[in-house]
Amino acid sequence: MSLQQHFHVLSNDFGNLLDSQNFSDFRIVVGKAPNIRIFHAHSQILSARSPYFAVALSIIFITGEISLHKHGVLTILELLVIADELILENFIDPLEDYLIQYHAKEL
User: Fold this and answer.
1) Which residues are CB-contacts of 53 (< 8 A; sequence separation ≥ 6)?
2) How many CB atoms lie within 10 A of CB 47?
3) Omega before 51 cis (within 30°)?
């Protein structure tokens, strides 16, 4: 098999992976009831293809936790923006509280 044929087969395999829900570990829900559409995705592919998802997934979703003391104000503000855009309401208040308590002078 030539290198070009190998890449073609590999590309088809990745296409099949994206079309399948198998091993997907992330859902993107779009719309409001009753007009909701769910896209099954793979966090590793989202992270590799999108800087936005790379930040959001690596810090919040993959680790399951974040130690805010290890990050600067700009990173925490980026997290706050991402949490707001993704409507992660359970992250917004704690992030705002943390910024006010520990970084009020920098804001």
Assistant:
1) 43, 46, 47
2) 19
3) no
pLDDT confidence of residue 100: 92
Quickly state the pLDDT bin for 75 (edges 50, 70, 90).
Answer: confident
Give the pLDDT band of residue 62 (cuts 50, 70, 90): very low
Q: State how far the Cα of 93 lies from the Cα of 76, in Å rounded to an integer.
A: 12
Report the SS3 class of residue 6.
helix
Total-model pTM: 0.46
- Both tokens of 68, joined, read 């805010």
* pLDDT-derived band at 41, boundaries 50, 70, 90: confident
User: How many Cβ atoms from other residues are within 10 Å of residue 57's Cβ?
Assistant: 19
Cβ(99)–Cβ(81) under 8 Å? no
Query: Is-contact 29 41, C-beta < 8 A?
Result: no
Residue 21, classed as helix, strand or coil, is coil
DSSP, collapsed to helix, strand or coil, labels residue 39 as strand
